[in-house]
Automatic annotation (TrEMBL):
PANTHER family: RIBONUCLEASE H. Gene3D superfamilies: Ribonuclease H-like superfamily/Ribonuclease H. Residues 7-112 form the RNase H type-1 domain. It comes from the Eukaryota. It comes from Nicotiana tabacum. This is Uncharacterized protein YpeP-like. GO terms for molecular function: nucleic acid binding; RNA-DNA hybrid ribonuclease activity. InterPro entries: RNaseH-like_sf, RNaseH_domain, RNaseH_sf.
Length: 127
């Protein structure tokens, strides 16, 4: 399948867990991590969330967002700037690194989305 599949899980304090696989443009792994963060935060915003604890299995992305690693590429800086702008509108947020093993549920969503035939879905479609 051409393009990337993003796996997003939103666990509101009350209510049902929301799981989404989203077909997106072709991204590098780190770009896909940022894109998944954007999509997850937009979903949280649509549910009027003010406090968000985000989890990500990319140590690079987590450390860039938290200010521990410098950004060396212009494209990654644009991603970081956009994410910081989104996070700025939240009352409170945290971003924590999780291991790949702890991210198996999101990975399963990516695999599920990858198994759908390309002609059956449009870019940006939620699967």
């Amino acid at each position: 399948m051409k393009g990337s599949i993003l796996g997003i899980i939103l666990k509101p304090p009350m209510g049902s867990i929301i799981r989404q696989s989203i077909k997106s443009s072709k991204f590098t792994n780190n770009e896909a991590e940022y894109e998944a963060m954007f999509a997850g935060l937009e979903l949280a915003k649509s549910l009027e969330a003010e406090v968000v604890e985000a989890k990500c299995d990319s140590l690079l992305v987590v450390n860039q967002v938290n200010g521990s690693f410098e950004v060396r590429e212009d494209m990654m800086q644009r991603y970081l700037d956009k994410l910081q702008d989104i996070l700025h509108h939240l009352k409170e947020w945290t971003l924590v690194h999780i291991s790949r093993d702890q991210n198996s549920e999101a990975d399963a969503l990516v695999n599920r989305g990858s198994s759908v035939e390309e002609d059956d879905i449009l870019p940006g479609a939620v699967l």
